[in-house]
Design a protein that fits this description.
360 residues; alpha/beta; Rossmann fold; Helicase, Ruva Protein, domain 3; Zinc Finger, Delta Prime, domain 3; five-stranded parallel β-sheet; two-stranded parallel ribbon; 17 helices; 7 strands
Length: 360
């Protein structure tokens, strides 16, 4: 039976280096762009704490939602002197990342206003933007006038190291050697895609055990399975030939109630891309041209660049045919020699692609 161990409160999150440099340089406009809610929240908390220490003790909070948001109130606040303190902070959150035409114009005005108002500091929180969003006039104005902190998603391959760093912050670690590596990988499998829950589980270890090295038994007895899987991350596992991870992700997606047709679409898109690249290679095109013609870019690019040249056209054709059969199954049709259950058929299709993608 575990006995709870009294632990000191975890330290406040450190101020991100770009924000520290910005404050030192007298900047008063800060932007966080991230899809990792935990890391974005920690960065915002650290900036608020640093701002209070600099005298920005009054805070006004705005949540931008809907087409009828009153941007005039934001502009008025940014242009006004604080009523109750020497300095004020504007905390503006735009969950959609799309302020609209009026909002875009207002953000550009706000960036210009803040340049002449050192008694007001603004923090604007956004999700990660696509390329079109990053080229918008309002975002370029914010980026030019202020300090941008772009926080990437913690990918599965980086999750064990992230967990180790978080354990170290509270004076703990996985035991050295292979057992420790096993512990970190085991935790990553159960915490993937849910960084907020991962943070909670790591903090729970500090409550249960004293500082020092943790055995696999201690970790496994504490950490719950709170993984959340994203159908668009499935490609990474499947095209990487990671059979066990693929099976775990599919089981998780099924348990979370994901639509079978969406999972099939993700798998079929990967297969179609591989087939198009293989056709182009067989037609004599170099790999870069084949990739461009098949419209393969982003996170999938390296995976398909590695895989397509070593597959034969007969293999990609067979996978394409299998994807067509599973398309019928998830829509309620029966296919000869295939499971009638949609999820079982998806598991089989994913396994076929995994085995084709697995290193020799």
């Amino acid at each position: 039976m575990n006995t709870a161990v009294a632990q000191p409160a975890p330290p406040a999150p450190p101020l991100p280096a770009p924000f520290a440099r910005g404050l030192a340089a007298g900047k008063n406009l800060f932007v966080i762009s991230s899809d990792e809610a935990l890391l974005a929240q920690e960065a915002a908390d650290a900036l608020r704490l640093a701002a209070r220490e600099l005298g920005f003790t009054e805070r006004q909070w705005f949540m931008v939602s809907g087409a009828h948001f009153k941007w005039g109130e934001v502009l008025a606040s940014g242009n006004a002197l604080s009523l109750f303190a020497d300095k004020q902070m504007l905390d503006i959150r735009i969950p959609s990342g799309k302020p609209g035409k009026d909002g875009g114009e207002a953000l550009q005005q706000l960036a210009a206003q803040l340049a002449g108002n050192p008694d007001t500091l603004a923090l604007i929180s956004l999700p990660r933007l696509d390329q079109q969003g990053k080229k918008s006039a309002w975002f370029l104005a914010l980026q030019s006038a202020g300090v941008l902190l772009d926080i990437p998603v913690v990918e599965r391959r980086a999750l064990p190291q992230w967990i180790a760093q978080r354990l170290a912050q509270q004076g703990q670690s996985a035991i050295a050697g292979q057992e420790g590596e096993r512990s970190l990988q085991w935790m990553a499998d159960r915490l993937e895609g849910n960084l907020l829950a991962a943070h909670q589980e790591i903090m729970k270890l500090a409550l249960l055990y004293p500082a020092g090295a943790l055995s696999f038994e201690q970790i496994s007895a504490s950490v719950a399975s709170v993984a959340r899987y994203d159908v668009f991350k499935l490609s990474e596992a499947v095209l990487g030939g990671q059979v066990l991870r693929t099976q775990r992700m599919l089981a998780g997606l099924q348990a979370e109630g994901e639509a079978e047709v969406l999972v099939h679409w993700a798998l079929a898109e990967d297969i179609r891309a591989l087939h198009r690249v293989r056709l182009a290679l067989d037609a004599g095109q170099p790999l870069p041209a084949a990739m461009a013609a098949a419209r393969v870019w982003g996170a999938k690019q390296k995976l398909i660049e590695r895989l397509a040249p070593r597959l034969q056209l007969a293999q990609t054709t067979a996978l394409l045919h299998a994807a067509g059969q599973v398309d019928g199954i998830v829509k309620g049709l029966r296919q000869k020699e295939w499971p009638s259950n949609g999820w079982a058929a998806l598991q089989r299709l994913a396994l076929q692609l995994c085995l084709a993608a697995a290193p020799a």
